[in-house]
Amino acid sequence: MSTTPANRFVLVATEWFDGERRHAHGPTTFKVVDGRLAGLAEGDHGETLAAQGWPLQRVAFLMPGLVDAHVHLFLDGGPTDQATRSAHLKQNVEQLTDAARRSARQNLAAGVTLVRDAGDRHGINNRVRDEACDPLAGLARVRSGGLGVKRAKRYGTFMATDVDDATSIRGSVTKLAEANDEIKLILTGIIDFDAGTVTDEPQFDIPAARLVVETAHACGRKVFAHCSGVKGLDVAVEAGVDAIEHGFFMTREHLLKMRDRGLAWTPTFCPVHFQWAQPDAVGWSANTVGNLRRILDDHAEHLRLADELGVRLLLGTDAGSMGVVHGLALAEEADRFQEAGLGVDAVLRAATSAARWHFGMAQPRLAVGAPWEAVALGASPFGMGKLSQALGRVERVWLGQGA
């Protein structure tokens, strides 16, 4: 499915999306040299260039490689029984690393060329990130959160280290920044679905969370915060984290501040949607299923509002969570965005260029000079109905040199 580009070739796309907008006015010709987009022109110039010795390819729809902005590579989202999931976590580090490699391959096969790994306590994400730098490895590229930070005896043991006072925060964040691409802050626990809300207090107050952010920024690293619930969101926004992950129980006031302060949001519908759609896998009661539906509906309403207000949205799946399968989940998350009322262009932007802009990548769109990190689909997602119908038809994936 995935390949390293030949030294040069020409590709003609019937339609394409550059990461920001759709181009559907007719065929476009792309010239790729040494893994970078060397030129593009309106019209079909394929046969002319083929006659000059350029290998020719034709595709129905072209777009930048997809980005899953929130995954846990070492976790396997396929098994839905607790015994199997528990046994998976008891494997040794080498076995878990192999699982992470499989996850990265699954992502690439699904057109996901870049993932942001949201933390594991073994450093597997950093290891696979380094392996994925080789375009021949067959792995999706990895932006790694390495090991995050949390409070002792609180949620997040599988992906974070404990910090205590200000000295501990400064020292830990500074050390983690040497290996991590970003710093993960575990700000809250998980949602109590039986109660239908977040019941515990935030792990960090505003001054402590702000210290994490300031220290990370001084080290040239952004901060992304695991956070849900009004109290936790208050802390995240006021502390100035760069991105909020999950963000259930969002409010309009939070979104307005996020827009004005340039904070991104990765909503991660998939894990909660799975538990609503398949409650027997978790053993939820009818009351809890009702809570799940209410939470999802509220989340969709605020996602739609975020889009209207201009908050930067990143598409992330939390792949590795129960029922959230690496690679396949991205199309499902795209459906959730679409069901919330976002247009196809907005969803594709969240799944391609928005994350690259947020990560500070120099060339986040398909443009001349950019790495040829692209995906060809068998049909256009525009007018298809569910986005998953088109995103599930990946025909070719390219990982350009220097992407």
UniProtKB/TrEMBL annotation:
Q: Where is the Amidohydrolase-related domain?
A: 61-377
**UniProt-listed Gene3D superfamilies:** Metal-dependent hydrolases (3.20.20.140), Urease, subunit C, domain 1 (2.30.40.10)
InterPro entries reported in the protein's UniProt record:
Amidohydro-rel (IPR006680), Metal-dep_hydrolase_composite (IPR011059), Metal_Hydrolase (IPR032466), Metallo-dep_Hydrolase (IPR051781)
Q: What is this protein called?
A: Amidohydrolase
| Lineage of producing organism | Bacteria, Pseudomonadati, Pseudomonadota, Betaproteobacteria, Burkholderiales
